Amino acid sequence: MDEDYPKNQMELEQRFGTEDACRQYLTQLRWPSGFSCPFCQGRIGWPDRRHRWTCQHCRRQATVTAGTIFQGTHLPLQLWFRAVWMVASQKNGASALGLQRVLGLGSYETAWSCLHKLRRAMVRPGRERLTGIVEVDETFIGGVTSGAEGRDGEGKALVVIAAEEEGPGIGRIRLHRVDDASAANLHDFIRQAVTPGSTVHTDGWVPYRGVEQLGYAHIATPLKGKGRTAAVKLLPRVHRVAALLKRWLMGTHQGAVNPIHLDYYLDEFTFRFNRRRSASRGKLFYRLWQQGVQVGPVTYNEIIQKEPPDHKI
User: Between the CA of residue 124 and those of 196, 253, 268, 293, 295, what are the distances in Å?
Assistant: First the structure.
């Protein structure tokens, strides 16, 4: 399927004004080369009047949303299409309250659940790691803690940031929450976020030592005693990303982000930042649907679980 998407909201409403039109679009996205059974990968099947596909090989039935993040949804596809458009078309995204109001959803929990499902679709399976010269540093996310300085951020979440150098600007980024700034956590982040052979630029924090043994060139710039201004000048990209991230969390989400779900907000920020130069909001709509049919299902109970799942960078 060629990249096919609405260019504006009017076109969205005209093209996807029925459940059949939405279902046909999803079918083309999920099975661009024809039906593939989600259970046995059989290639021959047929739909019935209830829009369930029956596999000729295993005789099991499935809908186009089965096995995707939209599995088991009770919302009409038309509402999902409007929700995805709202999330993709607004530069800073949407809050659950805003989504509830615009779509007329019956409860805040429904809107909140929709957004969290879409955030899980914002990480493309098998996405490429960062390359070239990559700045890496950490920042604390959370309320102000009196007296907290440096790496002592009691009561806050520690987030590691990697940002590609792109001339004087910033290329792609990766973000990940870690329990602490230990060598094990920082090295693991770098391995998952940066392509071996690239150059990693950090400050002089001791746990970054040994990065060269992981297959990277390492530039370490000691900052001890030089103050925050020096850190911003020597690692400007990661500090710029940190400032934008905090502004986004406080602006769009009013700072009301539960630490349990922070990983998925980081995914959304990364998705938006890495596509900030896209000339078409419709293309982001297309990408989100494209990735949504590749990501496995998640239930509301799984979303609100107290312990976060293993989360890939």
Answer: 20, 23, 12, 11, 8
Instruction: Return the CATH class of domain 133-248.
Output: alpha beta
For the chain, how are helix, strand and coil distributed in percent, rounded to 5?
A: 40, 15, 45
pTM of the model: 0.85
Q: Kindly write down the DSSP assignment for every residue of 49-86, as one continuous string.
A: TTS-EEETTT--EE-TTTTSTTTT--S-HHHHHHHHHH
Spatial distance between the Cα atoms of 98 and 103, rounded to a whole number of angstroms: 9
Count CB-CB contacts under 10 A for residue 249: 19
CA distance 238 to 204: 15
Domain-wise residue ranges, the chain: 133-248
Q: What is the number of residues in the chain?
A: 313
pLDDT in tens, 36-76: 998 999 999 999 988 999 999 999 999 999 999 999 899 99
Q: What is the DSSP letter of 48?
A: -
Residue 48: CB atoms within 10 A of its CB come to 9
Query: CA 259 to CA 153: how far, in whole Å?
Result: 14
Q: Measured in whole angstroms, how far is the alpha carbon of residue 94 from the centre of its chain?
A: 14
List the structure tokens of 282.
Answer: 């419709």
